[in-house]
């Protein structure tokens, strides 16, 4: 359990650690004087902070020159935090190389696909594959690990920071060398690579490994499999770097857990976190609200997917914001109630720690307008009062710590390989957005009040009566078999346009789309009919499609047509089909219906799958529910998605957070969250 990893866990009468939720922030004391440190720990106590991430950007302070070290200030901070009951998630401090290093070794700087070298002066200006960077960084990691191995405040190691946030794609000569090694390991022979990359096309046949380059800026579209492999390689290179730091940490401090903060968000598709999850001792995530009509849904989706990446086990919210960020075109402040609701939505989806970037708002630097727990205005502020109130709420929710998610009837499959492959260039449309399609299904389920788990490839599919796999574009033979077995054994599979089209080499499954899933779906698509931006087609069930249409022929006698196109090039032909498969079914949705259209379609798919909303009809759409179950009992989270008060009748249990009305019905404040313990086992 994450909280019991703290070196100073709270203990019960029997001496055993008492579970609690963790609460805190990134702490950057090097930006402040010692006098401020004293105030910091006083305010941390007032707010109930029990953990901080420390030294993330401290390299230049800790190692001012190649052979100069200064740990005295960090020793002092570590002691001060320990004395005040705050555990430390200690960074290895390697995220931002100091000026002396980039001056002496400019060859560690990343290079873009256009051959431009990125200058130092911001942060994360290092090549994931640079041996020189690695040598210097691992030296620092060893110093940190050795110095703080026995410090009682240390509870976990925080490798680097947001690996790949700014440097996932590097096209340097180091990257070229490492890419060739990676390709040799994947393909063994050049013949295999030439086949996989389809180099018979455009005279690309390789006769020597040394001829292979990263997909740098070229005269036209670079080879698609080369591009896909470069994405795999880039994710793997950062994973390999994570493992390199971890190896040093495990050698010096074998008992201290190691993590790093993922960024499960629409804009950070470069890192295949599903594939990284086993590399950390607990999953940690950073999330920032993306403004727009689906802002709340996306937050929930991210938290839900993080839970999927963590295999349903509790995870650590390493960063989110108390209010505005500084890196969007317009940085919106959070409205009253949103700070707590955002945090508790993460807890609802399995977070056992709620942390922010950052503790104290910077007075200088690029992030001085980014909110923090202690704002520029100081502790006498509504924001700090909201922070303190959240600290109290999290104390009340201590029994939730350690609980896992109770599987939902519906799973949404989120697959990095399909994300990468479906959005490559030279495709039928450049408008396809993998993440948005997945989010639309999720929004539709939220609007129907149906609980869903976002899961990743490799998860146990049989846990869900319905599995929605939007734009599952890249389907190797093994995955096609798994999905077929799932549907034949009673599962209800739903998939969409541009799914099942290519194999792991990005080669088209021939004979009609969606080749890998054609038999299972009982349909055959002869041609894609993508739509120009803004153009729509009507379906005969009163819904409207955009982005995509397909020329579909039904091939299995049992395939039902749930909706036809009414307008457009394929008017009269099937648009949505469903093939029963024994106890299960396989549904195909050939156009982008959007969240509203999916919400109209879904009841027809959920009913035969036997999945229903667990909420009373009048609050569906207004309230999001999740269930966590663990040693402390079974917990039902009810999150008010609206700005008005909502009464939820018919739900009973011990109210841990939130309130009830005079009749005992759960009363959700505007943007409020209620947590009930519905059973103690
Ligand atoms: C040009 C080229 C062809 C092919 C087509 C595609 O005509 O000569 O090789 O790339 O464009 O539209
Ligand atoms: C990321 C970084 C932090 C900070 C925040 C700002 O999450 O890890 O250092 O820059 O973004 O939103």
TrEMBL record:
Name of the protein in its database record: Beta-galactosidase
EC number: 3.2.1.23
Domain Beta-galactosidase C-terminal: 623-677
Catalytic activity line of the entry: Hydrolysis of terminal non-reducing beta-D-galactose residues in beta-D-galactosides
CDD domains (UniProt xref): A4_beta-galactosidase_middle_domain
Family indicated by similarity: Belongs to the glycosyl hydrolase 42 family.
Parts forming coiled coils: none
Pfam families: Glyco_hydro_42, Glyco_hydro_42C, Glyco_hydro_42M
Domain Glycoside hydrolase family 42 N-terminal: 26-396
Record carries keyword Hydrolase: yes
Keyword Hydrolase in record: yes
Domain Beta-galactosidase trimerisation: 408-611
TM segment ranges: none
SUPFAM superfamilies: (Trans)glycosidases, Class I glutamine amidotransferase-like
Alphabetic keyword roster: Glycosidase, Hydrolase
Top-level enzyme category: hydrolase
